[in-house]
Amino acid sequence: MSMGFPKRKEAKNTIMLTSMMDMFTIILVFLLFNFSPDEQDAVNIPKDVSIPSSSSEELISEAVSVTVSQTSIMVDNKVVAKIRNGKHVQARLEGQKIVPLYNELLRHKRLNKFKSPSKQKGKSQEEDSSTVILLQADKRVPFELLDKVLKSAGMAGFPKSRFVVLRRES
Amino acid sequence: MFGQQMFQSRASDNDDEINLTPMMNLFVVLIPFLLTSTAFVKLSIINAAVPTIASPSDMDPSQSKKELNISIRIENNGFFLSGSGDNLTNQELASVRRTIRAKSRGVMDYANLTATLTSIKRRFPKGKTAMIFPDESISYETIVGTMDAARWAVSKTGSKDRKYLYPNVVVTSLAKVGQ
How far away is chain A from the Cα of B141, in angstroms, using its nearest Cα? Predict the structure, then answer.
């Protein structure tokens, strides 16, 4: 009589894959329906910015992005001014104009990087993205600060803005 | 004897299964790819503008027919509506002046605003622009909520009939005396 472990019972090593296949098929179909690869390429929202939701159905399009969080103002992910207590701009101000933001937007205006002839062909002046900013602001930001940002952008040659919002399905 | 054995094994082990492994491999590759590139949060935009000085040549003469543009002042205690338009009488302008009180401090009555704007739009169907003047302390969320309330009309049955109210929005602050 041997003292070793009892011999394991011989079993065929096939896993039942059918139920797993069912699950994968459902997931695959769901993901294919939600697949929209290009939509979010234009924006990159930082983690500390929670944008508001809206019933607007207009699709997002490319423009110079201005992000207003509770701590900073950014132009294309480059910090141009810090914010204290959620509303006080820690940068040089000239009346309503935030000078570093104005200068940065002016630089973008000069580079005019979004006005490539191929892209703008056939578009009306209204759709021309060279005078538009894509504003991604935190929902708690007070208008006092937002007004300064919008006016600085307006003075730098960007009188129109597109507010980025989460689409609320209605 | 041999035939009997084969028949028995087929019945017990169910050997006629399809080989799912290549399909599984495909799925395992496809699913992570789709998961990383799927946008679960859908984004959209609201077009807004700051007021600019227009030259007289920019003015469209066809716009001058009883076109009423609405002004919405947002304060912590509610909305204050007023109208503006070139060919409207003072009486007509006074008739659209309304106050919509907030439900409580900071909690706005958006449904009431939409209903009021719908009734104004019915009387003055022309005009698409809403000027929004928020108070300094008003949050961005409230401003977006107001734009939403001013965008779509609500039909009498209560459901959205997808008619635009004032989709063009101009956001600005009221000029202060002495500034």
Answer: 5
